[in-house]
Protein: Thiol-disulfide isomerase
Organism: Flagellimonas pacifica
Amino acid sequence: MKKLRLEYSSLLQGKFSPGKRNLLFAFQVNCPGCFFYGFPSMKELFKKYAGQINFLGLSTAFEDFQFNNLENTKQLLDEKKLVGETKKAFDTYPDELQLSDIDFPIAMDVLGDKTFITQENITYIGSHFANYDQASEVEREQFDHKIKDYLNTNPIIPVTFTLNQFKGTPTFVLFDKDYSILEHWFGHKPYEEVKNIIKNWL
C-alpha cells in the first residue's frame, strides 16, 4: 500500500496522533466546495466515528496564496471569517453554506519554498506516476526535469499536498497507524457512500 506523507507546520486546534484508523481532510480556505461538501461531511463523520477514528483537517495552499494561508486559517477557526470565493459563495447561497463550529483537529500544511526541490522529493513525486519506476535512465531524467520545472513555477510549495500528489481540494485520505493509505478520494461523495467506505475498514 502507498504511504501517506503527512507533514504540517503547526497544529492549530485540538490534538492528533495516528490510531488504528485515521481520516485526513485536506482543504483550502478559498475553496467553496470544501465548505459546501467537505466540512459538513467531516463534521458528521466526526460526530459518528470520533471514538473509532482519529480525524485531522489540513489547511493547504496550491493556488490563491493571498487567501490560502496560515493567517486566514486561524481567522476561520477563531472568528469564522471567510475569504475570497468562499465568502462570495456564502453571500450568494447563505442557506446552503452553513458555517458551523469546526470541532475536529486542524493543522496547517508545511508551505515550503525552493529548498523543497531535492532529487529525493522529485523521485518520490515521480513514483506516483505509472511506469516511472520501470522507465529507462534517460526517460526518468526527462520526467524528473519536467517535475522540477513544474515545482519551480510555484512560489509556495505545499509539502503534504505535493508529496502525495493530491488532485485538489477537498481531498480525503483514510489511513492506518503506519500511514498506509486504505482509501482516498477527491471531491464530493454522498455522505452515505463515504460512511460505507469507512465501515468497511472498521
Q: What stands out?
A: The mean pLDDT is 95. Helices lie at 32-49, 70-79, 84-92, 119-126, 137-152, 159-163, 191-199.
